[in-house]
Write a structure and sequence with these properties.
- It is a single chain.
- The chain is α/β, with parallel strands linked by helices.
- It has two domains: about 1-85, SCP2 sterol-binding domain (Nonspecific Lipid-transfer Protein, Chain A, 2-Layer Sandwich), CATH 3.30.1050.10; about 100-415, Rossmann fold (3-Layer(aba) Sandwich).
- It has helices at about 1-15, 60-65, 75-85, 100-105, 110-120, 125-130, 150-160, 180-190, 200-210, 250-260, 290-295, 305-315, 325-340, 345-370, 400, 410-415, and strands at about 20-25, 30-35, 40-45, 70-75, 170-175, 190-195, 220-225, 235-240, 265-275, 315-325, 375-385.
- The strands form two sheets. It has a seven-stranded mixed β-sheet, sandwiched between helices. It has a four-stranded mixed β-sheet with strand order 2-1-3-4.
- Helix 2 (about 60-65) runs parallel beside helix 11 (about 290-295).
- It is an enzyme of class 2 (transferase).
- Belongs to the CFA/CMAS family.
């Protein structure tokens, strides 16, 4: 007990000068205010919890919360600012190298196990806080006032417009989740869509939704690794949304080579994924990366945008457009956290206390990381060049934004302000 009290005194002295609005409540009811007008209460459930404050970092604090050694009461956004203040050295440029065994081991079996561990908790659990289309990736806000349902449909449409999907085209979605994009693209743009996933729960849900939408024969979903998708030059357009974080840095050449093989010459691919903001290739993730690996995304890795573009270009895919959605994802995550909190009782029934805590703190902390610029997310649009080297693409980005949600717009109308003809020599 003497050691725990001494540690608390040391922490209190270190933080009192920073005026952190935190109240620490001990297991015996005793409380200590570390700043004026505390906005957050941190409850230590037993003397054992004090050890997390000897050399605190976001990883240890996240673990203590998930394992029930501490409780937090107060606004989550304020809590995360306080957690950052508690952990010296946290932030951009203060990342840790990933363990080598995590970098190199991306076998088919290991990747499948990692995906299933994250996504196969319960479809009903995800449905509590995702939007009506079950989209588990960054939404797209045009005004910032949209609810999560509209913002996610805007994202689906934004992707389809960027890819300039046309009726009858063959469209592939790598890591299709619960099937939202393939259903949207088929229903609104008339493509023949194929989606692949490694999650049993997602696969079953997507199949059921395809049947309910009456899209059998036009839309197909497979339980398949991206490396095992057969064929050469099969697809006119390819999307990968929120999937390549699972690929592994060392596997990026294999990943983009698979896309290049499957894409027709002149076809388009859109890669939508999270990146680290640390350009040092030895580093990936932020201070809580071991928490993420242990509890959330086992075997996941984040690459810097420069590494992504380099790997893509080395596989003869030419970058056409890059768009950052960093602030969009921060807003998306806070929408999810609010919806999860509103469904706490049902979430506890479906997933249990531990999983509820994991998803709550992971999503809130991720929102904080996006806002602070420790991580980002980009949509990268690229093409597989035709043998002539010409690229058939609009002159400007106007086609991405004019008449949003105007589905099945004729190509000649779509290109009214942007020619789709090759650039003159």
């Amino acid at each position: 007990m003497w050691l725990e009290q001494r540690v608390l005194q040391q922490v209190g002295r270190r933080l009192s000068d920073q005026q952190i609005p935190l109240r620490v409540v001990l297991w015996n009811g005793e409380s200590h205010e570390l700043g004026p007008q505390p906005k957050v209460d941190l409850h230590l459930k037993s003397p054992r919890a004090v050890r997390h404050f000897l050399r605190p970092n976001l990883d240890r604090l996240g673990e203590a919360y998930v394992e029930g050694e501490i409780d937090i009461r107060g606004p989550l956004e304020q809590t995360l600012h306080i957690a950052e203040a508690l952990c010296p050295g946290t932030g951009k440029g203060r990342t840790r190298p990933l363990l080598s065994h995590l970098i190199h081991r991306h076998s088919r079996q290991r990747d499948a196990e990692s995906i299933q561990r994250h996504y196969d908790i319960s479809n009903d659990f995800y449905a509590l806080w995702l939007d009506r289309n079950m989209v588990y990736s960054c939404a797209y806000y045009r005004s910032g006032q949209e609810d999560i349902h509209q913002a996610q449909e805007q994202k689906l449409d934004h992707i389809c417009r960027k890819l300039r999907l046309q009726p009858g085209e063959q469209f592939l979605d790598i890591g299709c989740g619960w099937g939202a994009l393939i259903v949207w693209a088929a229903r609104h743009y008339g493509v023949r869509a194929t989606g692949v996933t490694l999650s049993q729960g997602q696969y079953q849900h997507a199949r059921q939704r395809i049947r309910e939408e009456g899209l059998e024969g036009q839309v197909e979903v497979r339980l398949q690794d991206y490396r095992d998708i057969p064929g050469d030059a099969i697809y006119d357009k390819i999307a990968s949304v929120g999937m390549f974080e699972h690929v592994g840095i060392k596997q990026l050449p294999v990943y983009f080579a698979s896309i290049q093989r499957l894409l027709k010459p002149g076809g388009l691919v859109l890669n939508h994924g999270i990146t680290t903001c640390d350009p040092d290739p030895r580093h990936a993730g932020v201070d809580a990366d071991s928490f993420i690996h242990r509890y959330v995304f086992p075997n996941g890795e984040l690459a810097h945008l420069s590494l992504v573009l380099n790997a893509l270009e080395r596989q003869d895919l030419e970058t056409l457009d890059v768009e950052s959605l960093r602030l969009h994802y921060a807003k998306t995550l806070m929408h999810w956290v609010s919806r999860l909190d509103a469904q706490q009782s049902r979430a506890l029934e479906l997933a249990g206390e531990r999983s509820f805590r994991i998803w709550r703190i992971y999503m809130a902390a991720s929102a904080h990381a996006f806002l602070r610029g420790w991580i980002s997310i980009y949509q990268v649009l690229a093409t597989r060049q035709e043998t002539s080297g010409l690229v058939r693409h609009p002159w400007t980005r106007e086609y991405q934004y004019a008449n949003p949600m105007a589905h099945n717009q004729p190509e000649e109308e779509l290109q009214a302000a942007a020619s789709s003809q090759p650039l003159p020599m």
